[in-house]
Amino acid sequence: MAESVVRLEGIRKAYNVGTPVEFEVLHGIDLALERGEFCAVMGPSGSGKSTLLNIVGLLDRATSGRLFIQGQETSGLDDARLTHLRGHSIGFVFQYHYLISAFTALENIILPLLAEHEFVNAEIRRRAATLLDSVGLTPWSEHLANNLSGGQQQRVAIARAMVMDPALVLADEPTGNLDSKSADEVFDLMRKVNRERGTAFLFVTHNLHLAQRCDRVIQVIDGRIQDG
Amino acid sequence: MKDWLPFEWIVGLRFLREGRMQTLFIVGGISVGVAVIVFMSALLAGMQANFIRRVLNTQAHIVLVPKPEATRALRRDGSEIEAAIIQQPTQRIRAIDQWQKIMETVGNMRDVVEISPMASGSALAVRGEVSRAINLAGIDTGKYYRIVKLPDNLVLGHARLGGTDIVIGKELASDLGLTVGDKLRIGTAAGGDAIQTVIGIFDVGNRGANQRNTYVTLRTAQSLLGMTGGVTSIDVTVKDIYAAEDIARRIGMLTGVEADSWIQNNAQFFAAVQAQTTANISIRFFVGLSVAFGIASVLVVSVVQRSKEIGILRATGTTRGQILRVFLLQGAILGLIGSGVGSAAGAFAISLWHSYARNADGTPMFLLVIEPALFIASAVLATITGLLAAVAPAVRASRLDPVVAIRG
After folding, report:
1. Of A169, A105, A167, A168, which is closest to residue A138 (Cα–Cα)?
2. What is the ipTM of this complex?
3. Which residues of chain B neighbour A165 with C-beta distances below 8 Å?
4. Which of A62, A174, B200, B404 is deepest in the core (most CB within 10 A)?
5. Residues A132, A109: contact at Cβ < 8 Å?
6. Does B7 touch chain A (CB under 8 A)?
7. DSSP of B117-157
8. Are the beta carbons of A164 and B4 separated by less than 8 Å?
């Protein structure tokens, strides 16, 4: 059987551990995501969706439990190894786009590769340009991030998430800040990437219409998962 | 994005370029600080060089003289002093014992540049009914002029001394109504008496020296002062004038003669020079400190403003070390650019000041000392200051928790 792209076993996350105000946000999450799977995560605000995504994205550490990324157990890794694994295996798309405003659309896509290889070269430029083209933004390649519309910025963010060819993309309400037309376009783009490249997506959304178009929907309610 | 620039440079430069108003203001602040440092340093270096030049214009760095004569107390049985009052002896003019040997020893020292013997003593210059007490210095012109640049200070005539020639100062010439070619009678307490021809008149910028100092050949002075073949002092110049005191001490130990450095002979002046130097260092330190705080505050604000972007960079694979270097680099770049602009502004200001600040006699108030080393030192110091000032903000940026940073 093929190894899951991501597997969570009994993941718990608590804040203010050891203090009188300790509270647990995730109560033993078990989840596995296979290659090419497009999974929607739904749930009310404060249910622990973003915390779950941060832990899966290696941005935050679980209080207990085990997390495997492409078969590698991550709890024992130091910050440098986590950064390396995150850079190579996981792409991020956030609700508020979060492009680096000092750089153009094309340069924003180049940045993860630049951080990895230290210098830009023709191959890196070509790869970034191809991705920008695949999200339909070649004419805007030299525009600074701030000069793009919300939908365009989100498409650049998707291209940036794909530039390291990750096995998993974590999308935290990427359409939440867009009008319905742009939201559909962004979702279609993610779906296209998912199908063409076999990239697994964990897609947090409040949009039921979009969630219904995913392969699988999970509900996070009060820090526990309920498969939909 | 330049292919030859590494990641940290590209991101650091872009951040600086994007916050151009902030960058402009802090570069302005650093430039003013560096300009003040360059201006103050060049001004004080010029003034000190000028003062030292004036002081050392008429004297050697080290003068070797015989040890002063001292009276030995009479002791009974080798311990108890017999006489209650001990009168100090008079200090007659004495020649340095074995002076040729001492010249050879001192001349071979690594720190010594030039060495010249001198026979000097008090004399009376007489012309008609007018007489003046003078200091008669007998010199070996070939050696002495390499130590004291007397020919450079001549206002009339020349300084190529022959056996019956004398070079005198401007004030003495005026007092005795002398000019080049006139005769002057010299008499000494040792019974020496000679008629000398004035061949040159000097002005060393010091009224006392112009009035009192006269120069004849070594042989003439020896004859007039009654010390055939002897010298009363040996003048020495050294490579490092500020090490003169140290070298004088070594010469004293090595030769047994008394060695007085220009620092010892001009203690008050040297104390003033030291005080100036200390004040300059203090000013540099505090200006540097304010520049460092300026850079640090701008970068702290930048880290806060860019916390989301730092979080995104971290999320997309940028390491803590890379983030640290991005901000350290910004500090260093700010320091370097500021020092470049500041050095140019400082050099311009000091040149302007130099062209306007004049002494009463119209000569420049100070020497214009603009050394490339000063600019290199300023650039290096400002860059290091920028780097150090950036440490705290850079560490803060590198330690930002991506989750907290992205959430804002």
Report:
1. A105
2. 0.87
3. none
4. A174
5. yes
6. yes
7. EEEEEEEEEEETTEEEEEEEEEE-HHHHTTTS-GGGGEEEE
8. no
Q: Give the Cα-Cα-Cα angle B151, B157, B160 (nearest 5 degrees).
A: 55
**What phi, psi does A31 have (nearest 5°)?**
-160, 145
| Distance from C-alpha of A107 to C-alpha of A73, rounded to nearest angstrom | 33
Pairwise CA distance, residues B236 & B187, whole Å: 28
First CA to last CA distance, chain A:
24
CA distance A140 to chain B (A): 16
Chain B from 265 to 324: CB within 8 A of any A CB: 308-309, 311-320, 322
pTM: 0.73
Rounded to the nearest 10 degrees, the angle between the axes of helix A150-162 and helix A105-117 is 20
DSSP β-ladder status, A200-204 and A168-172: parallel
Tell me the one-letter amino acid at B399.
R
Interface test with B, best of A84, A92, A98 (most B CBs within 10 A): A98
Helix axes B307-315, B267-305, angle to 10 degrees: 70
Are B309 and A100 within 8 A, CB to CB?
yes
Better-predicted residue by pLDDT, A96 or A22: A22
Per-residue pLDDT, averaged over B336-364, amounts to 85
Pairing of strands A216-221, A38-42: parallel
Q: Which residue has the higher pLDDT, A127 or B408?
A: A127
Tokens for A56, please give them.
């899966």
Query: Tokens 């994005």 correspond to what residue?
Result: B1
The answer for B78, left when phi > 0, alpha when psi is -120 to 50, beta otherwise, is left
pLDDT band at A227 (very low <50, low <70, confident <90, very high): low
Output the six-digit token pair for A120.
Answer: 């830009």
> How far apart (Å, rounded) are the C-alpha atoms in residues B212 and B136?
8
Among A91, A94, A99, the residue with its CB nearest the CB of B406 is A94
The pLDDT score that the predictor gives to residue B294 is 86
Do A26 and A190 contact (CB within 8 A), yes or no?
no
Residue with token string 């492009």: A99
